[in-house]
Specification:
The chain is an alpha/beta fold. Helices cover 41% and strands 16% of the residues. A hairpin with a 5-residue loop joins strand 1 and strand 2.
Length: 236
């Protein structure tokens, strides 16, 4: 089963369990974010990947440049351990972790949650890859992904017991649009998946295909991309 088929099946089961008014708020917020066009303005293939240094679940600093020195990087942004869709997507990536590593690539996942939450999530889901904390979504913002939850949706999350103020260290309203990037050793984004609908995620098979497509590229090639080193330039 593809990850999006699994996500869709979970979504349909979830809709049967959620109160109608809660579901309506969530769906409206998703529609409004999609209508804003932000996903279309996020960094896309051809852009330079903004650098970052972020703490891992165990407190170790992880630097994008250091990762790229060893090979291409698969970088995925997700909302947090509280998001069941994120957990499904991360488990799917874990199932393909060996295939990603066999292609010489490093897989890292980034969310705005505190390291303790990331550590619990990594242990619960048996993740072998780095899970990094981007408090306040500063790195996500540089990729054009950060947005603020509407007040009614933030209230709904609090109502169902999701304490974002605690897990996101005082940044409860700011989340990343889920996205996955394949970055070559020169620091250029070669493939991107960005979708304002948090119930849709990159297929691992597509990630592997994108990594396979790097074989014919010159790893030393530099490209500033349409958006420059830090600015969004459109969706891949």
């Amino acid at each position: 089963m593809s990850v999006n088929a699994e996500l869709r099946a979970f979504y349909e089961r979830r809709q049967e369990q959620l109160p109608t008014e809660v579901s309506e708020v969530m769906q409206r917020a998703t529609r409004e974010l999609a209508a804003s066009g932000q996903a279309d303005r996020a960094l896309a293939a051809g852009a330079r990947a903004p650098s970052f240094t972020l703490p891992s679940a165990t407190g170790r600093s992880v630097d994008l440049a250091a990762l790229l020195a060893d090979g291409p990087v698969v970088l995925t942004f997700y909302r947090g351990a509280w998001c069941p869709y994120c957990n499904i997507a991360l488990r799917s990536l874990q199932q393909h972790y060996a295939a990603i590593a066999a292609r010489g690539a490093r897989l890292v996942a980034v969310s705005p949650q505190i390291p303790d939450e990331s550590l619990s999530q990594a242990e619960k889901n048996g993740l072998d890859f780095e899970v990094l904390s981007d408090l306040g979504c500063e790195t996500a913002r540089r990729y054009g992904l950060a947005f603020d939850l509407p007040e009614d949706l933030a209230a709904v999350y609090a109502r169902v017991g999701i304490d974002l103020d605690r897990s996101h260290a005082g940044h409860p309203r700011t989340l990343p649009i889920p996205a996955t990037y394949v970055i070559d050793r020169a620091g250029t984004i070669r493939w991107a998946f960005v979708d304002a609908d948090y119930t849709a995620r990159a297929e691992p098979a597509d990630v592997l295909a994108a990594l396979d497509g790097l074989d014919g590229l010159d790893g030393s090639q530099e490209s500033d991309g349409p958006g420059g080193p830090d600015g969004p330039d459109g969706r891949g």
